[in-house]
Amino acid sequence: xxxxxxxxxxxxxxxxATYPITDLEFIKNKAVExxxxxxxxxxxxxxxxxxxxxKAVFDLSEAISPKIECTDCGNCCKSLMVNIDEExxxxxxxxxxxxxxxxxxxxxDKGESGRMVVNAIPCHFLVGxxxxxxxxxxxxxxxxxxxxxPDFNKRLFTTYMHYDRCPIIxxxxxxxxxxxxxxxxxx
Length: 187
Ligand code: SF4
Ligand code: SF4
Description:
Number of domains: 2
Largest sheet: 3 strands, antiparallel
Number of strands: 5
Oligomer: single chain
Shape: elongated
Strand content: 5-15%
Radius of gyration: 18 Å
Bound molecules: iron/sulfur cluster
């Protein structure tokens, strides 16, 4: 196992800032700066044992997530398209005291395939940086950023789609580089 414990918490990432990094502007700029390196890192990760990688990102997420206040951020709710299924729409419309027809016309877009998404970005239910329907939020909201879901190496593309906006993803992936001993040009 190539994870070396959590001693890296003592270190700044790339000597840039306090760790974990939560400055959204810094993360956005860093994502541009590290774009080539991150492509190489994804190739590097594809060559690792899938189960070990799942455990590594799960452990890092469990350690890092409690150090980041999602209510200071809310960036996923400000920038992601949220999918909803019928049961979730039924639950939330009932909670809000609305008929499904009211709820659907206010909050949803529906595709021809039956796919439903929240029709606004930022999400309608974001108040400040917090979810106003937290107990009734959707499965995709609960799952994000999904480091607990198996087969992480098949989700590298989607993870990196959100790397520039989610401090949890940014810190997990940058710490993983250190833990895995990745160096540019390794892949
Ligand atoms: S339902 Fe809540 S958690 Fe989900 S995107 Fe909207 S505000 Fe965020
Ligand atoms: S999951 Fe990521 S993007 Fe969403 S609020 Fe938490 S830190 Fe911010």
